[in-house]
Design brief:
The chain is an alpha+beta fold. The chain contains 14 helices and 22 strands.
């Protein structure tokens, strides 16, 4: 969609220089995610009929597993300021944050990038300043990689960006372009509608532009934390399986061979052409465009077609041995299972989940039971991705607090200390995590306040109150608590 010439020409007319060559990669990754890669999964049999190979669908499965590893409903954004915490909790629950984030992770891992816009609706604008009434609201809008056009990238970070979508009004199509630009006094957001000829169109009730007077953006982007090694990159991230396409093909080819062995593993009866009735069929070859004329044998049913095969030319003098010959093959289930597992191991390794994440048994893929502490590849890669997720979710929290202050005048601080906590002990057990916190506290590597925030999930104010109560109840704790 972002290669659309109308949108690109409009942006270029406004002085921007968008790069569009990258979106072909995203389309390829989408096909693998949707498990419909026509150039690979489709073929024509000897009779010219279109067929599809059997598919294992490991592109989506890998993204699903990364989403499950990186976030759980137990995780929570913690603010130091209690007013911020109360407001943020209410808004995140309204926006179904715990449901949205896993979807965001999965989308980012297949497409390379996902984003959210904290978008204002029905706000009041006076001298480019926002205010709200009872009709005003804001919400999180999810955007996919093909809707994101980076306009300015500094140190591999997208600073200015355009988000593009298609809408229909009065049976006409329009392109909605939302531009976020960082100026000296903060971000400016522009809302533009263009028709299919590239002409700007205004709609009633839409703010043409407004200032936030903050360098905190109202958009946030999330990508897997891996280096993008592709050409024509424009600031967007790279799919987790961008460098594992061959391994995805290997998984599907091995699985197809396994099912074909079962499907075609029955007995075969080869019989002479003299015994068969034929009809003539003409079709057009899709690749060459040429007409092909072929004689097609007529079978009573699909089972017969599978079991009986034509062999040899017509002969005048024939006996039973030359007319009919049986073949009873044995299944290669063990060999097929080994080659599928080999390809699964290669794919799992290439997408950062370690060598033995998956196992093929009893005709399906299961997750191998393995303690994550034994898989250092997974642990190290997951921690990098989790750091990126922390930045993404904290950015969303800051944008919510910023709009709460701008629109409603609430006493909120978007620059507060915010952290995405690991309530379930990310990649380690909760017991091990608590032991680590205690060790850091006892060795002086962690303050008492930080310990209460991390280990007990308290806000800064709650931790301060807890320490004050501890002093009152036991004056002998004075030295221990740092007084």
């Amino acid at each position: 969609m972002n290669s659309n010439s109308v949108v690109i020409k409009y942006l270029e007319s406004k002085g921007y220089s968008p790069r569009t060559g990258y979106y072909g990669y995203i389309e390829l990754w989408r096909e693998w995610y949707e498990n419909e890669v026509s150039k690979f999964h489709e073929y024509h049999d000897q009779n010219g009929e279109k067929r599809e190979i059997y598919k294992l669908g490991m592109a989506k499965r890998g993204c699903e597993d990364w989403s499950s590893i990186l976030f759980s409903e137990k995780d929570k954004l913690i603010c130091s300021n209690q007013d911020n915490q109360d407001y943020l909790d209410k808004e995140l629950e309204r926006m179904h944050f715990d449901e949205v984030i896993p979807e965001n992770i999965e989308e980012a891992f297949w497409s390379g990038t996902c984003g959210t816009i904290t978008r204002v609706k029905n706000a009041i604008l006076n001298n480019n300043e926002l205010s709200a009434d009872d009709k005003t609201s804001f919400d999180l809008i999810n955007v996919s990689a093909d809707m994101i056009i980076p306009l300015r990238v500094e140190h591999k970070k997208i600073i200015d960006v355009a988000f593009v979508s298609t809408i229909q009004k009065e049976q006409k199509n329009y392109y909605y372009i939302e531009i976020h630009e960082l100026k000296e006094d903060g971000y400016i957001i522009k809302n533009v509608y263009v028709d299919e000829s590239g002409n700007e169109t205004e709609f009633e009730g839409v703010l043409k532009e407004y200032y936030t007077h903050s360098n905190i953006p109202l958009f946030n982007l999330f990508s897997p934390r891996i280096v993008n090694n592709l050409k024509n990159k424009n600031g967007l991230g790279i799919s987790i399986y961008a460098n594992a396409i061959d391994q995805l093909k290997g998984c599907d080819l091995a699985y197809n061979n396994f099912l074909k062995d079962i499907e075609l593993g029955g007995k075969k009866v080869f019989y002479n052409k003299k015994l068969v009735k034929y009809v003539t069929k003409t079709y057009t070859d899709e690749k060459s465009g040429e007409k092909v004329v072929q004689e097609i044998p007529i079978y009573p049913d699909d089972i017969t077609k599978q079991q009986f095969q034509v062999l040899g030319d017509e002969i005048s003098n024939a006996n039973d041995e030359t007319l009919v010959h049986e073949y009873n093959p044995s299944l290669r289930a063990d060999e097929d299972e080994k080659i599928i597992n080999l390809n699964l191991n290669l794919y799992s390794f290439k997408i950062g989940l370690g060598k033995s994440r998956y196992k093929f048994e009893n005709g399906t893929v299961v997750t191998a039971t393995q303690y994550v502490g034994e898989n250092q590849d997974l642990v190290q890669n997951a921690k990098k991705h989790r750091n990126a997720l922390n930045e993404y979710t904290v950015g969303i929290a800051r944008s919510i607090l910023l709009l709460g202050k701008l629109l409603y005048g609430y006493n909120l601080d978007e620059n507060d200390v915010i952290e995405l906590t690991n309530k379930d002990g990310f990649l380690v057990s909760d017991e091990d995590l608590q032991n680590q916190y205690r060790q850091d506290l006892n060795s002086g590597l962690m303050s008492k306040l930080t310990y209460l925030i991390k280990a007990r999930g308290m806000t800064l104010e709650q931790a301060q109150q807890e320490l004050a109560l501890a002093r009152e109840d036991n004056p002998q704790l004075k030295d221990l608590l740092g007084e």
